[in-house]
Amino acid sequence: MLFNSYLFIFIFLPIVLIGWFSLNKIKKYELAEIFLIGMSLWFYAYFNFSYLFIIVGSCLFNFILSYLINRIEKKYFFIDENTVAGKHNLKNNKGNTLVKILGITGITVNLGILFYYKYYDFFIENINFIFQKDYNLKHILLPLGISFFTFQQLSYVIDRMRGTAPHYGLVDYMSFVTFFPQLIAGPIVLHSELIPQFKEKEKRKFNTDNFTDGCIQFILGLGKKVLIADTLALVVNGAYNYRYYFTTWSALLFIITYIFELYFDFSGYCDMAMGIGKMFNYDIPRNFYYPYKATSMKEFWNRWHMTLNRFFTNYVYIPLGGNKKGTVRKVLNIMIVFFLSGLWHGASWNFVIWGLLNGLGVAFNNINPRPLKNKFLSWLCTFSYVLFTFIFFRCETINDVYIVLKGLVNPAGTKFVVDMAQYMDIPELYILKRFLEMIAPEMIRSMYMIAFSIIMIICTLLLCGKNAEDIVRERKYTTGRAIGLSIILIWSVISLSGVSTFLYFNF
Fold this sequence. Notes:
Blueprint: H1 6-25, H2 29-45, H3 51-77, H4 93-131, H5 146-162, H6 170-178, H7 191-199, H8 208-240, H9 248-279, H10 297-301, H11 306-317, H12 327-345, H13 349-367, H14 375-394, H15 398-408, H16 415-421, H17 430-439, H18 444-464, H19 468-474, H20 479-494
Helix pairs in contact: 1-2, 2-6, 3-4, 3-5, 3-6, 4-5, 6-7, 8-9, 8-19, 8-20, 9-14, 9-15, 9-16, 11-12, 12-13, 13-14, 16-18
């Protein structure tokens, strides 16, 4: 089920909100949580009912693993449930060993499931290529959101193994994993961020201010997705199909349009997720913080997909030694992290190369932390490098990357730039297009170019201005903002008939 759909906005979300707050109002707290879990599973299984068995099985496996660790903690460390054990170093080697065995088992099984569904065919394809074999591919359908809920549970399993997380009851644990706003495309939430909020009875009461804030952020996210990202997608997808005709300006405009599309698509989803969380009085961590304002690659990754970066920092980079074992080891650790980050995004060498290129940029910033004295030049260098790396992210094959790069150095003219604009054949231009067809058909190409220029200018202004979360935090409830939000909501709802999936559903 998509956030940007009539079913979600007008049926699913109202039912969940009414049921949740009604059950909590009569103090049926556990029943309310079970209701929320059930609705979240419906939300997830709506795409494909078979997905339900995967996520429920994954949750039960990890819960049982945590339960077994808890039994060991009780027996060897005398620790009760809902208590953080601290590091398992209480002079009991047998207890520590058993906990590590269970933890490693959990990590292996979780990664094994992810490997099977996401990377099996990629692995077999490479085996076939390297060893000239002909093993059959399974063509496995990637379960929605598996990368997100697997990493979310991995963080908990690792924390349990470390002794830095308590054992939770089944209802609390299922709520943590399946909470529908962040279930399919993040942000990747930690147990310590969400489960304690579920336990606060005060948060179970309807809060007008939080609900208002949540609605505003949801509307802003909806507008970013439906009105901007989906419109830009028409140009990006249309131009990509004719990438062989790229010249310098069209190739550059193609990749700029794509990184705008990607940002407004993914950040729009996260804004909607955070907005829905606020409606329930729950805080979901932000995932983006003005990434295209970064003046270094290190800063960019502190602003882009922040919860994924946090996961790799806490559970890969620091355990590898972080920056405490010398420059060479630090660079190696960074490259390992970004290799895994690229692979996490997709089973393709394009994503791996994209990750390694980002790793090189971050490693360079760590080795040479002194920024350029000219801040604008620092920004321009960073933004240009981000553009370059995202060519690998968007293209489907290495050969396509070569074609786009070849177009970048082909100063043959600007004709295809105008042709690109014509892919933005949106319903809002229908009447004007018909009018021009009757009185001045030669102006239609100019109309598309003007419309495309306008949306690119709007994107630039939005990226330079305040993001949705900061606007919500200001709580400036003015008449102008109310009118603006109403227009965005009505316009977005009207546009839902042309809905497209979120880009990060593929990851």
